[in-house]
Amino acid sequence: MAKTSVVARNEKRAKLIAKYAKKRAELKAKGDYVGLSKLPRNSNPIRYKNRCALTGRAHGYMRDFGLSRISFRELANDGVLPGVRKSSW
C-alpha cells in the first residue's frame, strides 16, 4: 500500500493536468514556450504516474485493468475480474 500522501499528490496532479490541458495545447500550437514555462510544473501530463486503483502501487501497473500485478492476481484468482481465467496448456 502506497502512502496516502503520494496518492493524493498524484490525484492533485491529475486535476491540474485537466485544468490546464486546453491552455497548454494552445500555447504549444503557437510555439510560445515562455508561456508554457510559466504554467505550473505539475500541469505537465508527463509528471502523472499510473497507479493501482486499489493499493496505489506504481510498479507492475497493468494499463488494461488499472491494477498492479499483485492486485490483479488476487482478483483474478478470486474470479472477480470478468473474462480473466488462469491459463493452462
Automatic annotation (TrEMBL):
Q: Which GO terms describe its molecular function?
A: rRNA binding; structural constituent of ribosome
Please give the InterPro entries that the UniProt record associates with this protein: Ribosomal_uS14 (IPR001209), Ribosomal_uS14_bac/plastid (IPR023036), Ribosomal_uS14_CS (IPR018271), Ribosomal_uS14_sf (IPR043140)
Q: Name one Pfam family in it.
A: Ribosomal_S14
What is the top-level taxon of the source organism?
Bacteria
Which protein is depicted? Answer: Small ribosomal subunit protein uS14
Family listed: Belongs to the universal ribosomal protein uS14 family.
> Alphabetically, which GO biological process terms does the record hold?
translation
Report the function annotation for this chain. Binds 16S rRNA, required for the assembly of 30S particles and may also be responsible for determining the conformation of the 16S rRNA at the A site.
Keyword Iron assigned to the entry: answer is: no
| Cellular component terms (Gene Ontology) | cytoplasm; small ribosomal subunit
Its assembly, as annotated, is: Part of the 30S ribosomal subunit. Contacts proteins S3 and S10.
Read off the Gene3D superfamilies from this record.
30s Ribosomal Protein S14, Chain N
SUPFAM superfamilies hit by this protein: Glucocorticoid receptor-like (DNA-binding domain)
Ordered alphabetically, the record's keywords are: Ribonucleoprotein, Ribosomal protein, RNA-binding, rRNA-binding
